[in-house]
Each structure stands twice: as structure tokens, then as C-alpha cells.
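Fig. S4 source data, part A: sequence.
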Amino acid sequence: MIGEKMEKALNDQINAEMYSSYLYLSMGAYLASLGLAGFENWMKIQALEEMYHAMKFYNFVEERGGRVKLGAIGQPPTQWDSPLAAFEAVAAHEAKVTGLINDLVNLAIQEKDHATNNFLQWFVKEQVEEEDSANTAVQNLKLVDNKGGMFMLDREMGARVMNLPIDLKIVINATKA
């Protein structure tokens, strides 16, 4: 059984993950408006990953006998100064999410909730990858100094695909096995 404090914190994280998904969709729409379909693709994949993260938390709360309580999702920005500024915002956002995950780990330790601490370790590792991916995109954009380079980077971003996790069935399967 999950404790009250942990349940509330995990519900807050579900909201944060859904906001992340919403934010990346907004960034994708902005990048599409610039004719950067590859960058839009990168953001759409990122949005799907964030929704997957939200569902992992959702399912975990239920598995621990808790109650999922969804809150309103804040409206994300819709405009950035440039593709670089959008990806710098991604990097900053992922650093913020890492802090949220770390706070959850600290709470799980404080509450002596070993099951939640164990569950959160996947997210600790995932955030290392998320921050690296965002920072790599920022560094690549900083190297672009002409339209040809932007075109090539857009094509590269367009090749990104989502690798479906093995446990995706828990996200899309509405019935319990």
C-alpha cells in the first residue's frame, strides 16, 4: 500500500509528465510552422515518450493500491525565438524534470518506501538519457551556421523513431491480465 504523501507526489509527477508531453507537442507545432518537419518529428517522439512516462506512473500508483487523481495541465508556450531557443528550453525542462525525479527518490527514501524507490530508479537512468539527448540537439544546433546545415540537421531529426518499450502493453491494454 502506498502512503498518502507518496501518492500525492506521484500524482503530481503524472501531471508534470503530461505537461512535458503537451509542451513538446507545442514545440513541434512551432517547428512545423517554420517548415522544419524533422524537428517536429523529434518533438512528437519526445511527446510520446513523456506520455509513456506518465502512464508508467499512473499504472504504478494503481498497482500500489493508490488512487490516480489527475489535475489540470498548464498551457505551454507556443512561440520561441528560434529552433535553438526551443531546444535550449527542452534542455532546461529536462533538467527541471530530473530535479522532480530526484525529489521523488528523496521522498521515497524518507518514507522508507522501498518499492517506490526501486520503481523510480528507471526514471533516474532515463533522465540521464533525456538530458543528454536534449543537450546533444542544442550543441548540434549551435554548430549550424547556414541553411544547408539546418536542412541536414532537420533531416537527421526526422529519422528519429520511438523504440516501443517491452512493457508498453501495460499502457495500451485496458484490461488487467
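Fig. S4 source data, part B ends here. The chain has a mean pLDDT of 93.
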